[in-house]
C-alpha cells in the first residue's frame, strides 16, 4: 500500500478518477471507491464488438457485462459522471495481434473512432462481501495476487472468441463453503457463485501449488479450494483471437465506477 | 384456453416446440413449459445488432437479454436443444420501416444470412412467482392481457434505439407490495423489481383505466397500482428507429426455452 493509496482510500469515486486522470495516481485500485463496482476493461475495434459482446452474453460468469461505450465515444456515461475511458484507469495493456505490445498510463494516442469499450465486473465486490461475512480471504490478508488457473471448462464461443475458462481460487473453511456460494451468487455482476468447489483435478487443475497467473496460496488444514470464474478469461479469448488491436486494463488497475455494488442494474440514469 | 393448449400444458419444452414447428400449435404460450424461461423475440439485420444489443444492456429492466444468435444462424443453441428461431415460435410479426407488415406462423422465407435473433426475458416468470406466493394477478385470473402504458421514463439510447419505457400494471394489496417487489427482484431476466408503485401520474400515466396496450384492469379497494418495465419497450424503440426490416414474436406467442426459471445464468452448456 503506497501513501497515495492510503490518501485515496476514503475519497469519492470521482476524486479517485480525477487523480488518476491527472496522472497523480498510477497504482492498483484494490480497496479504493469502497461500495462501488470496479471493472475489468476490454477495448476493441467495432468490427469485433458484436462477437465480443455475444461472447460476454454467453459467458456471463467469467465476463459479466457491466457497461459498453458507444462506438468511438470514450465517455462511459452509463457507469458514472465524466468517465473518460482513455485516461481514467491507472494503467493499460496494449495488445497487437494477440500479443502484449506495451503498458501505458493513458491511451489517448491509441484510441480510435472505431473503438468500443467494454467494462466487465470483477471479483473485488464478492471478496468484500465474503470478508464482511467473516470468511477470510488469504491473498488479501497476505497482500498477494489471487491464484488463477486455466481450467478444462470450455467457454461458449462467439465468432473468433473461444477458449477454456480461467478460474481464481480461494481456500474456504469447509463449514463456510455453502455461505461463500450463497453470498457470491448475490453478485452476478462480480462473477456470481463459484463454478467448482473441491478436487482441483475435476476441472483440469493438476497442481494447485502452481497457478498459471498470480501468486500461490496455501490450502490450510480444513480449507476447501473454491473456484470462481475469472476476468482473465476474456483476456485469454482476446489473445487467442489475435485481433489486430485490443486494449485492456493492467491487472489490478481497474475502472472505478459510480455504480453501487448492490445496484439492481449497472446503469446510471442520464437524468439522475 | 384451447383443447390444444390443455393437451400441451404438461408437455416437455422440446415437445411444445416440436408441435409449434410442425404447425400443429399456433396459439399463445402462457402456462406452457412451466418452470422454464419464455422470451420475447426481436430479429434484426446485423447492421443494427450492436446498437440494439447496447440498447438492451443499457436498459436491462425492459430488455433483459437472455440469448443472442450468431449472425445468420437461426439455431439458438445457448437457450435449448434444437431451437430453430424461424419456426419454433407460434406466430411472428414482420415490421418494415417501423410498420407492422403482416403476421405469419413461420419466417423461413424472411430469414436472411445477415439476421441476428435476440431473446429477451418476459413477465411470465415473475407472475408465476407472485401467484405461488399468494399474490393474485387480476389479468391472469380473468384471462385478459396485462394493461400496458407508455410512461414518461426515458430509456437510455443506443444508436437509433431510444424512447419512453413501456410499463405493465398489476394491482397489488397494499400489505403485499413489499413482497411483490422482493419476489420479482429475484428474476432480473424477467424484468426484475417494479420501476414504480403508487400514483400513476408520477410516471406520466394520466388515466389508469385506459391502457395504451392490453386490457384495462380494475384497481380494487385496498390495491396499489404497481408498474414493471415491459417487453413492449424494445418493440416501440424498434418501431421508432424505423429500420428496414425487423421481426418480432406476436404478443403472447413467445419462445419457450430449455433454461430453468431459477438458473443462475441463461446459458445451456454445449456439452450438457
Write up what this structure looks like:
The structure is a homodimer of 272-residue chains. By secondary structure, chain A is of the alpha+beta class. Chain A is built from seven helices and eleven strands. Chain A has two domains: 3-123 and 241-260, PSTPO5379-like (3-Layer(aba) Sandwich), CATH 3.40.1640; 125-233, PSTPO5379-like fold (2-Layer Sandwich), CATH 3.30.2040. In chain A, the strands form two sheets. In chain A, strands 1, 2, 3, 4, 5, 10 and 11 form a seven-stranded antiparallel beta sheet that branches. Chain A has a four-stranded antiparallel beta sheet with strand order 6-7-9-8.
Following the backbone from N to C, one meets helices and strands of chain A in this order, namely: HHEHEEEEHHEEHEEHEE
Domain count of chain A: the total is 2
What are the segments of chain A in which pLDDT stays under 50 over at least 5 consecutive residues?
Answer: none
Q: What is the 3D form of chain A? A: globular
Q: Any idea what the radius of gyration of chain A is?
A: 18 Å
Largest sheet of chain A: 7 strands, antiparallel
Strand proportion of chain A: 25-35%
Q: Can you count the helices of chain A?
A: 7
Write down the CATH class of the largest domain in chain A. Answer: Alpha Beta
Might you state the CATH topology name of the largest domain in chain A? PSTPO5379-like
> How many individual β-strands of chain A?
11
Give the termini separation of chain A.
34 Å
Largest interface: A-B, 31 and 31 residues
Mean pLDDT of chain A: 94
Helix content of chain A: 10-25%
> SS-based structural class of chain A?
alpha+beta
**CATH-derived architecture of the largest domain in chain A:** 3-Layer(aba) Sandwich
What is the CATH homologous superfamily assignment of the largest domain in chain A? PSTPO5379-like
Amino acid at each position: 500500500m503506497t501513501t497515495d493509496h492510503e490518501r485515496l482510500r476514503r475519497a469519492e469515486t470521482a476524486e479517485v478518477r480525477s487523480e488518476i486522470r491527472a496522472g497523480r495516481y498510477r497504482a492498483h485500485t484494490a480497496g479504493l471507491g469502497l461500495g462501488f463496482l470496479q471493472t475489468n476493461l476490454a477495448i476493441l475495434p467495432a468490427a469485433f464488438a458484436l462477437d465480443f459482446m455475444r461472447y460476454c452474453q454467453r459467458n456471463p460468469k467469467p465476463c459479466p457485462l457491466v457497461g459498453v461505450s458507444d462506438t468511438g465515444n470514450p465517455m462511459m456515461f452509463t457507469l458514472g459522471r465524466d468517465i473518460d475511458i482513455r485516461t481514467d484507469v491507472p494503467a493499460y495493456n496494449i495488445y497487437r495481434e494477440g500479443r502484449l505490445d506495451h503498458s501505458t498510463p493513458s491511451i489517448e494516442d491509441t484510441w480510435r473512432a472505431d473503438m468500443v469499450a467494454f467494462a466487465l465486473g470483477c471479483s473485488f465486490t464478492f471478496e468484500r462481501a465474503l470478508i464482511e461475512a467473516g470468511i477470510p480471504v488469504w491473498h488479501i490478508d497476505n497482500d498477494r495476487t489471487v491464484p488463477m488457473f486455466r481450467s478444462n471448462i470450455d467457454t461458449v464461443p462467439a465468432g473468433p472468441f473461444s477458449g477454456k475458462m480461467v478460474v481464481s481460487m480461494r481456500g474456504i473453511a469447509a463449514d463456510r463453503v455453502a455461505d461463500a456460494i450463497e453470498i457470491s451468487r448475490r453478485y452476478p455482476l462480480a462473477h456470481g457463485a463459484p463454478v467448482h468447489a473441491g478436487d482441483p483435478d475435476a476441472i483440469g487443475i493438476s497442481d494447485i501449488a502452481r497457478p498459471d497467473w498470480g501468486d500461490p496460496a496455501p490450502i490450510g488444514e480444513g480449507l476447501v479450494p473454491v473456484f470462481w470464474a475469472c476476468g482473465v478469461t476474456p483476456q485469454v479469448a482476446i489473445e487467442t483471437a489475435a485481433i489486430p488491436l485490443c486494449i485492456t486494463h493492467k491487472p489490478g488497475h481497474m475502472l472505478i465506477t459510480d455504480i453501487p455494488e448492490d445496484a439492481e442494474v449497472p446503469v446510471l440514469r442520464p437524468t439522475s
